[in-house]
Structure formats: C-alpha cells, structure tokens
Design goal:
Elements lengths: L10 H8 L6 E4 L6 H9 L5 E5 L3 H10 L7 E4 L6 H7 L5 E7 L4 H5 L25 H7 L2 H12 L4 H11 L5 H12 L10 H11 L2 H15 E11 L2 H16 L18 E3 L9 H6 L7 E7 L2
Parallel strand pairs: 1-2, 1-4, 2-3, 4-5
Antiparallel strand pairs: 5-7, 6-7
The protein binds S-adenosylmethionine.
S-adenosylmethionine binds next to helix 2.
Length: 308
Amino acid sequence: MMDREHVPVLLDEAVRYLDVKPGGKYIDCTVDGGGHARAILERSQPGGSLLGLDADPAAIAVAARRLEEFGQRAVLVNENFRDLHDVAVAQRFKPADGVLLDLGLSSLQLDDPGRGFSFQAEAPLDMRLSLQQTVTAADIVNARSEGELADLIYRYGEEPLSRRIARHIVQSRPLHTTLELANVVIRAVGGRRGKIHPATRTFQALRIAVNEELDNLYTALEQALDILVPAGRLVVISFHSLEDRAVKEFMRQEAKGCRCPPSLPACVCGRQPRARILTGKIVTPSRDEALKNPRSRSAKLRACEKLG
Ligand SMILES: C[S@@+](CC[C@H](N)C(=O)[O-])C[C@H]1O[C@@H](n2cnc3c(N)ncnc32)[C@H](O)[C@@H]1O
C-alpha cells in the first residue's frame, strides 16, 4: 500500500491546549496517519504514552508504520471512539491526562476514489469508515422515503434545497455510484453554481448518517470527560458547523453544570460544573496555515479542562 500523507491541522495549538507533559498519558481518538500523535509522543518524552484509536483499519495500519519508532509508548487500536471509555480501561489509559479528537475524514480518505466519499470520482456509494459497519450510503439513498431523505439532507447537510434533491433522488433510483448521485443533485438544483460543488452538502449529509458521526461525537465527549484526570484536557478540532455546535454546547453545559430550565427558581438537578472552558475565543488556523493547507480553512479548535 502506498504510504499516505495527511497534514495535521492546528498541530501546535492542539499540543499546547493538551498541555502535553513528559510522562503523561494521552489518547488520540482519531489517530489516522499519526500527525498529532507523533507530536504528542515527542513532547511527552521521557515516559509518556499515547493510545491511538481509529475506526478505519487502513488508518491504523499507516499509523503503526509511522509511529513504529516509539515502540510500546504508542498503542494503536482499530476502534470507534464511541467506545472510548471501554477501550481506555482495557488499555490502561484511564485516567488520562489529555484526550484529542480531530474530527471528520483525512484528506487521504476523501481522496481515495474507492471509498465513495468524493463526488469527483466514480465509486460505489459506500462512505463507511469501516467494513464492519453494515449500512452504506447506497442503502440509505435507495431505501429511505423521500421525506426521510429530505430531512436527512437538510439536517446533516444544512442544504436548503433538500426537498427538491430528495424528490430527484427518489425519481432516479436505484443509484449505485457517486457520480450517478452527484449528477442527480446537479440536475435537481439546476446546474452548477458558485464555487462549491452542488453535491457537497448532500455528500456531507450521507457521510454523517452512514457513520453516525454526531451520535458518536456526543458519546465520545461525555466519555472523554469521565476518563480524564482532574485538570486533564479535552481538545476537539471540528470541520463543519454541526460538529462545532455540538462541541460548543457540550463544553458550555459542562462548564455550567445545572441543567434545570431557567423558569425554575432554584436548581433541582444538582449537577455541578465538570469543566472549565479554555478557548473563550475559538481557535482557527493562522493565515499562513490556511494558505499552506487549504483543508485547514474550516477547522475550529475548542478545549476545556476537567475540574477537580
Ligand atoms: C482528520 S483525520 C485525523 C488526522 C490525524 N489527527 C493526523 O494528524 O494524522 C480523522 C480520522 O478520524 C477517524 N474517525 C472518524 N470518525 C471516527 C470514529 N467515530 N471513531 C474512530 N475514528 C474515527 C477517521 O477514520 C480519520 O482517520
């Protein structure tokens, strides 16, 4: 297999907010090619260790090769981060000093024509991160009702023309390939307009649905705070507004504690704040990084610290 190259986004910022220290234990929930993982392993010498998870077995194979020099300090597992707590316990990484999530897909997955993530290359409509998952994008496109598809494309793609696109999809079924779907979307919206390909939002929506990205993210965020030591850091890099909103809401809620409705005169839930937000001002790539790595342009980093 050709070795893959993915330029890590907001690398210095992620390592700084994780507050990586010699001897610390860190978990990279989205290890991929190991860009962030390598920096964490370097900064945590001597004695530091890293547990890297990735749902994609191909990513784990690449990380294993890239991080070989760190020997047993790097533990890599092909697991979904929705199982973060159990994996951390099994690998003796609970409690951990820091947890990183660098969400979405790597450029290598997006560019791999066989995976079905790209609307620019012909491929089966798959979009699964792991072959252990049973539902593909084709299953969703060909089996859901028009109303369900419209809701899904609206909710996960924030696509204002979702109803029209869903109608065209249903009229054109069965659809088996990425280009078939992309062409249906182009016809539905009346041709190409603007800089963004008309199928961008529809493909994003399907990818999120196939991989249950938002549900997995909520689950992982909860579990990450559970497994951190007091003063341990949680750092999340997201690439679209749905993810970033979920992270922002989670951190705000954990910093606030109480979940009682504002109409109640006093707190009855008794929940205490569990975290302190470190990124009052959201962290985005410098102009220099955005110029060098266009994929970084939409990145947003948020971080919080677990309270003691
Ligand atoms: C943007 S890349 C991470 C890049 C990495 N930080 C680096 O520097 O090389 C995101 C990775 O997260 C993985 N991923 C996405 N969702 C996941 C999940 N629910 N569980 C585990 N890994 C996931 C993808 O397979 C992909 O390899």
